[in-house]
């Protein structure tokens, strides 16, 4: 679309243009309003300890954040910039991918459906492995299209490289080669590629590019693979209503207009083709093979395992391209209206915090806590610092401090990546420590205070210090309990 064409479109679609501008402006505001999230700090911690891979995730997010913090300094701005830039590139690749399947008119609709989603807002604001995964997923589909439909054999190699980088981002990238296999099996016209060496050369490239992850796991008794597979079976429990919870949070991140539109068109497609998969046009089949396995697979397991809201995100790249042709501008306008309402509500919550979030996965109070701990730290310069809320408080303090802040491995508990950074806990024997304990629910610190009993198993004495209180508008929004622990025993006190 040239400048004149764009100008004409904006005049004709003033509501959509205004909605897009409002959403973009709010996202820019959110960057400053949110500040550092625990996830941002944790994956930055990855980058501060270079390795082939990491305990809970592959290394791509560490590479990304390290690159930006090296260029712009170890600042919250650099972290947010990394997420925003890469998500912007994902949008560009989504547009290029859409053009391979759709007319320019329908590509425009696909972009208008995707851009205002809460999914894109989350990806551009919070550092997670999904940020590089989404980019690599889109690039993989572009390369596979050119390899399969345009028969440009060199793109099999590039597809393997991109799949390898996707796997270096997150293990759910296994759905990429699985989707490709499904497509080649079900598409009679393209099944010939299974007997060609080129896809298998692509597989070799996938393995080569993802070799850092494989090597790290071989060196560490397959620790990461176990954590993300058998390690998660402990969460299996029959909870049928969790299915509705997954429906709810997927409708939230896509916005209800798009999400339920996907479900309606999926139902109509199943009714139309039933089990006659060979009758599905090849390009539509290609898109569905990279959408349905992940989308339906996670819904199937949702009654027995809680599916996180970000797990299905890559599936929506091809899913939105597929469904966009069925959306009229009437529904796209509603998508924009709902998006503006949701983002305005998010702005109120971020700026004024009217609804408390009883979780450590929250944006509020982390920077204030770090400032208070720095002041406290000056009073006890020889004490080491640690926390025990999985990784969150320790990761945030590690971001703001120029020293090692330890995790719950101090108390002989699994501490995720903190167990794999080469710290010698025995060297801390006999030292004193400051323990920072986050209280997710302000006013209910019963469990956190009871944690003192655990501390006394490893320290001779435990003394409470004044808590760190974070306020907004005179209202207490976060609270961190602080204890000074004397004479550390790494193996516990008998």
Automatic annotation (TrEMBL):
It comes from the Bacteria. One of its GO terms (biological process) is lipopolysaccharide biosynthetic process. It is found in: Cell membrane. GO terms for cellular component: plasma membrane. Keywords: Cell membrane, Glycosyltransferase, Membrane, Transferase, Transmembrane, Transmembrane helix. The keyword Membrane applies. The keyword Oxidoreductase does not apply. It is a multi-pass membrane protein. Pfam families: PMT_2. The chain crosses the membrane at residues 15-36, 76-98, 110-126, 155-186, 198-218, 243-264, 285-305, 311-329, 336-355. PANTHER family: MANNOSYLTRANSFERASE YKCB-RELATED (PTHR33908), MEMBRANE PROTEIN (PTHR33908:SF11). This is Glycosyl transferase. The lineage of its organism: Bacteria, Pseudomonadati, Bacteroidota, Chitinophagia, Chitinophagales.
